[in-house]
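// run 5 | inverse folding | seed 20
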């Protein structure tokens, strides 16, 4: 059950360039008594989803969430290591927490997530104020570790598991709009992309019990939610075998099961790996109206030599074939991407191939970064980070400029079309407007009509577009 938790509201604070730290709290009468924890999350959706598991575990142990960092007994920061900048942000926040601790001795500070895993006990030496260091597979141990820290010792658990999926834990929905929710379907990653720290911070890939995923989706639907996003670093390699050997469920079968929960429950997923996305998944998407026509298919680079150095295990032609399959089987599908500029030894011509891929694939949007060397990764050990920062930044700005242009064109093509939109809540700019998404994951803003509310599906005709948003009116 999710709704018997008091209302949880989140506030966004723009801190990092691309990612946001999110602060969660709950306001209730009971929250005035007992111990309080405060949690901020950085990094990918998996981390935000993990914070909801942490909130559930701490809730069971008698802790209550608060938005007021000053009144909290336990300050937690769920961290990301993906790029150097992400780690810098966390260290800056720790400085702030330190000041709070100065005024309120006895406050415990805990570092969770990928940075905790990467740095392990070293964190305690580097950041003296930290009392707890807890890796992504050790959250069940949190109540015990907090007790250890309360006794004046440091609490550390960075054990990576081959089994942990937190399948039995009902996440406490934090910062929720009551309409859309994330469901973790797997953890870890077995790919070894040479630039990437995730296999080291999240451990081996494992898939969660399919029945617990479907049950969580059904529960969310009953509680008014109308969209779930299934999360994993590489969802297409989802594979769960019943412990009694009676059945095996692959990703295509899983999305079908979740789609069958209710036709009014939208299903999304992220992230798809180009080497693993199958036609079976595409045909399943085409078969069910409620599986959204949107695929996040990170290319990283448009050049085959660079892709090989990145150890992505596909080349330009393979990627293009997958994109063609998507547009053939699901003509209305939108595709988005992640792109890294200035990877080791990338030449100007190779960079041009990334640009031409953006145009060719017609991405609706992309997350774009310049390469940031991460300690311990394959690339750090094998290749020289030889592209000067200025050049990386120039290539990135060219990528961003082109993608913005392609996004605008993509969105302009929607003018005049009518979409089924799921209302998520008030638009950022005005309480008189709703915001919601169409199947293609495009944000659409339109005037509120009488008798509409978040969680409703409405038809919206598009009249205007920017590179980020569509505008329209209900029909
Ligand atoms: N599992 C997902 C990606 C997770 S990380 C996938 O395989 O697509 C999210 C994105 O961060 C990556 O797709 C990549 O574009 C970017 N990224 C990862 N490591 C990076 C690094 N060292 N420097 C810059 N960007 C990086
Ligand atoms: Fe990192 Fe590659 Fe795994 Fe994605 S698939 S998390 S980029 S190693
Ligand atoms: Fe960051 Fe860890 Fe996610 S490194 S991107 S929080 S898996």
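// decoded
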């Amino acid at each position: 059950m999710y709704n018997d938790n008091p209302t949880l509201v989140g506030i966004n604070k723009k801190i990092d360039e691309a990612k946001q730290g999110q602060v969660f709290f709950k306001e209730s009468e009971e929250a005035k008594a007992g111990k309080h924890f405060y949690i901020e999350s950085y990094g990918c959706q998996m981390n935000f989803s993990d914070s909801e598991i942490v909130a559930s575990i701490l809730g069971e142990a008698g802790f209550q969430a608060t938005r007021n960092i000053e009144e909290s007994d336990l300050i937690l920061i769920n961290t990301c290591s993906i790029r150097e900048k992400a780690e810098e942000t966390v260290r800056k926040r720790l400085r702030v927490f330190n000041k709070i601790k100065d005024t309120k001795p006895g406050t415990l500070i805990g570092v969770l997530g990928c940075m905790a895993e990467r740095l392990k006990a070293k964190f305690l030496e580097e950041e003296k104020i930290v009392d707890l260091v807890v890796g992504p597979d050790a959250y069940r141990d949190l109540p015990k570790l907090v007790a250890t820290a309360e006794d004046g010792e440091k609490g550390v658990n960075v054990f990576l598991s081959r089994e942990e999926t937190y399948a039995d834990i009902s996440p406490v929905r934090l910062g929720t709009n009551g309409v859309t929710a994330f469901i973790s379907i797997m953890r870890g990653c077995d790919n070894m992309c040479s630039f990437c720290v995730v296999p080291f911070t999240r451990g081996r890939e494992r898939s969660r019990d399919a029945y617990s995923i479907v049950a969580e989706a059904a529960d969310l639907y009953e509680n008014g939610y109308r969209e779930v996003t299934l999360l994993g670093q590489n969802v297409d390699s989802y594979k769960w075998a019943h412990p009694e050997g009676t059945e095996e469920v692959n990703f295509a079968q899983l999305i079908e099961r979740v789609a069958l929960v209710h036709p009014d429950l939208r299903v999304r997923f992220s992230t798809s790996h180009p080497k693993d996305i199958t036609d079976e998944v595409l045909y399943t998407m085409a078969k069910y109206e409620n599986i959204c026509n949107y695929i996040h298919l990170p290319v990283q680079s448009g050049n085959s030599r660079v892709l090989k150095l990145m150890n992505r295990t596909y080349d330009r032609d393979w990627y293009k074939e997958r994109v063609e399959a998507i547009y053939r089987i699901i003509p209305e599908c939108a595709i988005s991407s992640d792109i890294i500029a200035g990877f080791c030894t990338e030449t100007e011509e190779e960079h041009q191939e990334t640009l031409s891929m953006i145009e060719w694939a017609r991405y609706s949007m992309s997350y774009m970064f310049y390469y940031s060397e991460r300690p311990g990764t394959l690339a750090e050990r094998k290749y020289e980070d030889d592209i000067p920062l200025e050049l990386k930044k120039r290539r990135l700005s060219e990528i961003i400029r082109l993608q913005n242009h392609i996004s605008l064109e993509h969105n302009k093509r929607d003018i005049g079309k009518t979409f089924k939109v799921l209302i998520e809540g008030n638009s950022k700019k005005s309480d008189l407007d709703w915001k919601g998404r169409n199947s293609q994951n495009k944000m659409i803003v339109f005037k509120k009509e009488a008798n509409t509310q978040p969680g409703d599906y409405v038809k919206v005709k598009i009249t205007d577009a920017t590179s980020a948003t569509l505008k329209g009116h209900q029909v």
